[in-house]
Recover the amino acids of this structure.
């Protein structure tokens, strides 16, 4: 099978992993591609790219309800997360103090147990450098233990990083309230909001956060562009040194095509209409699954979730095997298991939520997007039902042979 095979009748239900590029973006690529100069150049061929970059920054800022000067373009969500976490503690550890107080000894980072690996692994790195890292537990319904969170906050807290919505369960955290509590002890608040674009109403001012991370490829833009929202008058050490791009906060020539694609998506998104359509499709899917398939539970069903995400636990079924069978049938979905060195391991996020290894390995994530139809969803449920029945039967027969 070639890399550029005709998609044919395949249905894509993995929009939390990435999204197809918007058709208008694809049509504009040849036009944008002619604006090839370096935005930092002062000659005529640099002025066009600089204007395109400026317009994209304005569009993204307006969409996020931010000031254009608060927008820093990066290569993606992972870089944006690293930029904030490392940037804050590099600032402190190089003796530059805290909000003008050079005697500050703040050294604590607070995160949730279900953060993206780009947060978890950066926290591990900072811990090796002497940062105190504390983790807030999350229950089976995807809800943060707010009592533990409040007890962890102190005058030693430098930064809190809690994601807006979990990429596996879709559960949304109350970041507005969490940020307010962090500010009460003088700490900064960052949210990994990669799963928010195209799935929620985004308003960084209303959220009250100091930093936020976003990614273009989750929003029908090209891959290779992310955004770090950096609230005015906040201290953040640069993590990439070189030129003076992005007002000195992120060196390197800007990825203009990807940035332009994200700006265009921010201009064209019909927020309320698209969110309502996703919600309706997801809700109908879950109702049909519960009606037609036995032994299924939905993670976070009673919690506030982004409208496109449904994570199922299917009793007696291995998620990886189910995924591969569905792939053969023409459906792209995801599983709660992540492959490491060729060996499937349960999702750390689901384990952190209190699910057993068996439950975590029986999970299947379905994340809808704007191109999905009711007919596709109904076809998928039919195939899912038959595949689950067949795999359960095979497992039962295997147990009988070894009895």
């Amino acid at each position: 099978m070639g890399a550029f095979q005709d998609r044919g009748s395949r249905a894509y239900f993995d929009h939390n992993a990435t999204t197809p590029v918007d058709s208008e973006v694809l049509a504009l690529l040849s036009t944008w591609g002619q604006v090839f100069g370096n935005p930092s150049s002062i000659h005529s061929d640099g002025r066009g790219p600089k204007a395109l970059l400026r317009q994209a920054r304005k569009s993204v800022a307006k969409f996020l309800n931010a000031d254009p000067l608060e927008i820093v373009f990066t290569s993606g969500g992972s870089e944006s997360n690293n930029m904030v976490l490392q940037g804050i503690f590099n600032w402190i550890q190089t003796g530059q103090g805290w909000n003008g107080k050079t005697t500050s000894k703040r050294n604590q980072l607070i995160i949730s147990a279900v953060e993206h690996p780009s947060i978890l692994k950066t926290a591990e790195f900072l811990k090796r450098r002497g940062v105190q890292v504390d983790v807030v537990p999350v229950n089976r319904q995807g809800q943060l233990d707010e009592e533990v969170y409040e007890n962890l906050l102190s005058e030693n807290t430098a930064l809190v990083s809690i994601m807006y919505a979990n990429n596996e369960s879709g559960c949304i955290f109350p970041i507005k309230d969490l940020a307010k509590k962090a500010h009460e002890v003088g700490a900064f608040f960052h949210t990994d909001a990669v799963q928010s674009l195209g799935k929620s109403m985004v308003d960084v001012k209303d959220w009250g956060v100091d930093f936020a991370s976003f990614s273009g490829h989750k929003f029908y833009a090209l891959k290779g562009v992310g955004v770090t929202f950096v609230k005015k008058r906040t201290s953040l050490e640069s993590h990439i040194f070189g030129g003076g791009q992005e007002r000195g906060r992120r060196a390197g020539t800007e990825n203009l095509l990807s940035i332009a694609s994200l700006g265009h998506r921010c201009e064209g998104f019909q927020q309320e209409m698209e969110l309502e359509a996703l919600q309706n499709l997801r809700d109908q899917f879950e109702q049909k699954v519960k009606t037609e398939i036995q032994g299924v539970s939905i993670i976070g069903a009673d919690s506030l979730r982004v409208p496109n995400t449904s994570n199922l636990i299917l009793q007696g079924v291995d998620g990886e095997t189910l995924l591969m069978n569905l792939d053969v049938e023409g459906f792209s979905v995801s599983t709660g298991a992540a492959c490491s060195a060729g060996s499937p391991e349960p999702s750390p996020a689901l384990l952190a939520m209190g699910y057993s290894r068996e439950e975590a390995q029986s999970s299947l994530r379905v994340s809808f997007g704007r191109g999905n139809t009711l007919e596709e969803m109904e076809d998928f449920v039919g195939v899912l039902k038959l595949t689950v029945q067949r795999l359960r039967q095979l497992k039962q027969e295997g147990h009988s042979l070894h009895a």
Remarks:
- The longest strand covers residues 309-314.
